[in-house]
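For practice. Supply one:
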Amino acid sequence: MRGLLRTLKGLLKGRRTFEVPIIATVVGGHTGRRDDYKGNVTSIIRLNPDFPQEVLQGIEEFSHIQVVWPFHNGSPTDVALHARSPRDNPAWPATGTFVHHNHRRPARIAVSYPKLLRVDGLDLHVVDLDADDGTPIIDLVAVFTQFLPRGRITQPTWPGEMLKDYWTDSKERP
């Protein structure tokens, strides 16, 4: 373990870092760090109480928000700076660290696009946020279609195979 930490520190040595504030916390929703069956789960993004309510003025006119959050249950020892098969499935090709959408990347940051159901004071009620209950939120913003990827999006077949049940209704979880 110490050797792994030393190696990771060596690889990241000299890289700059910065701190970001925690602006909100996820209340309710997912628990247990599950990989799939994330669909149709409602949760609340509760902004810190020191924010004035006007920080959300106009957000209810948007259908979706972009939420940035850390994989806070992970640790630096979870980071995998090498190619590996997604979900350790040898049927899928080994891919590099920055191909994976999980806590094993150096910054351990995730981005989600939940549907905004309603705003109640400093609480944003959302559906399809894949962050767990208690997750700190470091940023959120209304989704503008103009900032979504332009042009045709391409990918190999394995992400579709791997994520076929990702947004399946959580009530169908085995």
